[in-house]
Design goal:
Elements: E1 4-9, H1 13-24, E2 28-35, H2 38-48, E3 52-55
Parallel strand pairs: 1-2, 2-3
């Protein structure tokens, strides 16, 4: 089956809960996180083993 790649916008409590649930699912991979605060995005990425992180503002 094909793996679905996910990206998360936001690094708060809801995103953490969603990410924890996503990690339990088969055929999914969380590949990126973006946040208004680059340090928060980096910490979130490190906590959940996400390879890419960035600021969300340049994409709006």
């Amino acid at each position: 089956m094909k793996v679905i790649n996910w990206g998360i916008i936001g690094a708060g409590n809801i995103s953490a809960s969603f990410t924890a649930a996503l990690k339990q699912m088969e055929y999914t991979e969380l590949t990126a996180v973006a946040s208004r605060d680059v340090n928060k995005a980096k910490k979130f990425a490190e906590k959940f083993g996400i390879r890419k992180w960035d600021l969300v503002l340049p994409y709006l």
